[in-house]
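ok here's Bifunctional NAD(P)H-hydrate repair enzyme, seq below lol
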Amino acid sequence: MFTRQNRTEIQHFVVTAKQMQAIESRIFDAGMPVAALMEKVAGRITEGILSKIKSISVTSIGVLVGPGHNGGDALVVARELHFLGYSVVICCPFSKQKELTQSHFKYITSLGISINKNMESLQHCEVIIDGMFGFGLERPITDELAEGVNQINAGNKQILSIDLPSGIHTDTGEVLGTAIHATYTFCLGLWKLAFLQDSALDYLGEVELIDFDIPLADIEAILGQTPEFRRITPENAMADLPLPRPLATHKYKNGNLLIVAGSHRYTGAAILAGLGARASGVGMLSIAVPNSIKPLLSTQLPEALIIGCPETEDGAILDFPSNFSLDQFDAIACGPGLTQSATTLVQLILECNRPLILDADGLNILAQLNPILTLSQRQAATIITPHPGEFKRLFPELAEELSNHVFVTQKAAQQSQSIVVLKGAKVCIGTANTVWINPESTPALARGGSGDVLTGLLGGLLAAVVLNQTPIDAIVKTAVWWHAQAGIQAAKDKTELGVDALTLTQYLNLNPIQSRFLNKSHP
Ligand SMILES: NC(=O)C1=CN([C@@H]2O[C@H](COP(=O)(O)OP(=O)(O)OC[C@H]3O[C@@H](n4cnc5c(N)ncnc54)[C@H](O)[C@@H]3O)[C@@H](O)[C@H]2O)[C@H](O)CC1
Ligand SMILES: [K+]
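and the structure came out like this:
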């Protein structure tokens, strides 16, 4: 007995509409008939739909059909549901269809199922299948069509969208005119960019990838060895964890990190960054803080070397102590809780030749210093971790397009020659060749302090890879994934309200996902 192949590797590809069309064309050129592929895909969508509706009592299913092949998929699904005994109501508010879609119309009509033009025909159905537009949507939905979509949304029924909620732009995730509010969306073949854009989140509902066996060779032929966009998965995130450790390792081989953080006003930020770094397993941790808060840090992080620094009148770090050198560190993480009074210090750090993570006030200070020029002139790698507000201050010329997170992250990384981590529901990581996007997270992390934790965690992991001369890009996505997974687990245990930043640091250590890492441990 054969079971369907579990192709986890396809989970990490992300495509634009144009790339999907190009991949699809290769399949057709190789001899796969279009109708056969539609039949196969729709069969798998039907399985997906049945698994979602089996627990509710459904007698009548409404199917919204568009003019293209998204509509064709919907008609095949409708036909199969009809044969399974469901009462199917079809609505197609278009007078012209593509040839294959037209052919399915003819057949389904011959089975005695009538086709309605008016969207009100769907109002008594318990469930609606949305096959109006997929990746072929090319202009806004307007007029009567828009009214119909809004009416369907207002009906508060379960809506299952095929490929994309109709009205959502495949690449930007933006709403073109209006869009279906799906309960579930079945993305066909490969993840489309819209599934990883914050702007589409409210419309997608629960999402699932329907694999239909696109050969990897066709994907790679179009996307290349280094795809432009990549989705972070447990597999690719864990592959870059510094585990298992070599048996004969010692502390100087596991990274030496300097955190520069905190002020008299914001002591907690330094502690949280320190606790994030602690969880990373970094070999040596030093934390530079204003002299006056050194005792507090020493109590909270007994394993770290706390460096008390001269401070400004308002309690920010003024400078490093005399004879202090940044050269000894593998990496520096700078910014949480510094306040904007630490400008001279941040300038000094930007000039040093150590790999650097800049966050929070570090970014606000950078924003005053011609960011693109400053970053591109740095002699070592820089990772910046802005939220959208900080991003706007750093890259004002990209502000207008900020709703397209993936695009602006890519542009900012290219312009600044840095790694740009744009925070949001779906964190985007722009590197020289690829934008990594984290699909799984939790709103529980939208809370003061969780960014400080990420900075520390990232710093610790970065210090270790710099020392071992492994690529930096890869570890950034691992840190973002680890941080989100800790948040998800904490939210499961304590609700989304119970994940304060300190609790989050505890889940970095205790996260059950870590037991999976043990598989990679020594025999
Ligand atoms: N992924 C695959 O390899 C497969 C995908 N399939 C399905 O096909 C659609 C894409 O089909 P396509 O015909 O290219 O596009 P659409 O169905 O999304 O619609 C295009 C159709 O609609 C017209 N149109 C576009 N915007 C508007 C508008 N605002 N108002 C009115 N009309 C509009 C446009 O002119 C076209 O006529 C994909 O999503 C999958 O569902 C295959 O079935 C299997 C392989
Ligand atoms: K759709």
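fwiw The mean pLDDT is 94. kinda neat tbh
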